[in-house]
Amino acid sequence: MSSVAFETQRAALADVVAIPVTPFAEDGSVAQDTHRALLRRLLDGGITTLTPNGNTGEFYALTPEERRLVTELTIDEAGERAVILVGVGHDIPTAVASARHARELGAGMVMVHQPVHPYVSQAGWIDYHRAIAEAVPELGVVPYIRNAQLTGARLAELADSCPNVIGVKYAVPDAARFAAFARDAGLERFVWVAGLAEPYAPSYFSAGATGFTSGLVNVAPAVSLNMIEALRSGDYRAAMKVWEQIRRFEELRAAGGSADNVTVVKEALASLGLCRREVRPPSKPLPENGRAEVAAIAAGWSI
Fold it and tell me: What is the pLDDT of residues 106-159, one digit of tens each?
């Protein structure tokens, strides 16, 4: 498939890339009606790029059947209103099966989660992503990079053999490293998505990113859209005003090595009556004394 055919997918990455939560019912199963309602809220709020089975969706805590269900619910609910970037990962056969499932349902792209295997060589990283990308040549492929050791040259090498690798979710918390990596890989060759959400978006945009991922968007789509509008127009002063508005919320999510990353988002949604606060281990719901602060932040945004 030619690069021209990936135009829609590339445009969808240069935006707020929402990572929806996966709400759970009282019995612990995926709360399907609630999930659809949360997706509709994002779509009605102006969000046009959705990533089912992202980390904010508790990817690693879902069963294979649940991951398929989340993909199906998202694609069905979004219809033509959004471009869908399905999170895939684990071992290669599992990732390939998930990517093919996404393709069958009409998704436009897959995001390949950072391999969690403790022994990752750079050549092995290429082999892993190549196996997935070659299995779905019709889909745009977006590696999720959290490995600071990986070089931009390796990404270029991957894309040389897999032209459907069109974008990168870069989530190493180092703006200078990102700037160098993007230029070594090819700044114009890929769509660069700031993979550490709103806190890092201004610094990463200044270095060449044109999109950012967001979990906060589940709670307040308008806040995330305000930030990307400011960044697109090059108004960093306005973007940093939004940054100040979301700073405490994101600090709570990042505390303790991002221990409460999903927990804080679900707590905010629970405070607004939109879903239950339950998360699955290894995450843990917030203790009572942390809930009021999250609720106050969420209430301030919803005005």
Answer: 999 999 999 998 899 999 999 999 999 999 999 999 999 999 999 999 999 999
Selection from 190, 187, 134 nearest residue 1 by Cα: 134
- Indicate whether 1 pLDDT > 50: no
Q: Which stretches does DSSP call E strand in the chain? A: 16-18, 49-50, 83-88, 109-112, 140-145, 167-170, 191-194, 211-214
Residue 178 contacts residue 147 (beta carbons within 8 Å): no
pLDDT in tens, 278-294: 999 999 999 998 999 99
H helical segments located in 14-91: 32-44, 64-78
Q: C-alpha angle 40/292/257, rounded to 5°?
A: 80
Of 103, 175, 189, 182, nearest in space to 150 by CA: 182
Q: Are 109 and 12 in contact (CB under 8 A)?
A: yes
- Residue 86's beta-bridge partner residues? 110
